[in-house]
Fold this sequence. Notes:
Blueprint: H1 2-24, H2 27-36, H3 44-61, H4 65-91, H5 111-129, H6 139-144, H7 148-172, E1 225-227, E2 233-235, H8 236-239, E3 246-250, H9 256-270, E4 277-282, H10 286-292, E5 301-303, H11 308-312, E6 320-324, E7 335-336, H12 338-348
Parallel strand pairs: 3-4, 4-5
Antiparallel strand pairs: 1-2, 3-6, 6-7
Helix pairs in contact: 1-3, 1-5, 1-7, 2-3, 3-4, 4-5, 9-12
Amino acid sequence: MELSLLAARLLLAAVFLLSGATKLVDPVGLRKALRDFGVPSALAPPMVLLLPVLELAISAALIPTRLAWYGACGALALLIAFLIAVGIAMLRGRRPHCHCFGQLHSAPVGRGLLIRNTVLAACAGWVISRGQFHSGPSLWAWLGSLDSHERRVAIVAVCVLGFGFFYLLDRARPRIEPIESPAPAVEDEKTPSPPPVRTQRPAQPATPVPQGVGLPVGTPAPEFELPSLGGEKRTLQSLRGSGRDVMLVFTSPFCEACVLLTANLVRWIGEMKEPPNVVLVSCGTAQHNLAKLQGFEASQVLLQRDFEVAEAYDSSSTPSAVLVGADGLMRSQLALGGEAIRQLLLSAGQPTES
Length: 354
């Protein structure tokens, strides 16, 4: 019985340690998850720091016997709060990503998450039920009671677990993979290319975007009306008129990564059987975009005055992309960087069979 209490405390401590540490290395993802769960924007920034620190504190308190009961109380309270938040989201018909272990594991909430948190809450409740002074043996006292062989095995196990923890923590660190450069175009030797024109990037908006992590999945996509490179006005409703999902790619002719992405997007779309309606939402003048963002039809490149449409979709970085369903609802989280945009495109369409 006493060793079972120690095992329950160590299990809770390991889960909260991994959960808190992986959240700390991915604050943007945590902020997005909090927003998807309905946390007010004013509370999200402090909770990005408070929640992982609280989880790490609970993990540390579960180890020593004199603090284990308080750590179990904190664990139970936090698990109950998680269960309530997940239950409310599911009752409202929403499936936000839990972001329980940062980038390491972030899946839509569901029955599996409820079962896992219920089991952990039962472990915490069991430790609490034994009383403040009967939370099981001390970890150090238990290690001291082992013989030499058992102690060596325990040390090896601790080293393996420590290595595994740092390996998982490194995997949880968000990364933006570089996209491949397109093959250079073959220039006609008889026709000299015009000299490059130096352009000045438009001034950034004075008020920064408060979140920059995209809109929650399932919420209505903001409507807009923008001119295309061809001059005609396009709205989100007209883009959805074909009955296909619309992939909005926020880009800029002054962003080198965007120029590379555009060339790759043309190739990726060509390799798909049923791609979504991919539309570039850019800035700058038509001349800037014609010179840099080539390969798309003029009607598929829309020009915003500054960054008003990107701000409406809570995007503060380029390149980035979101998927809007044919029903006008947000179908995806904000994809940042070339590789994330490629994965979003592949998930939204149907690749050509080899």
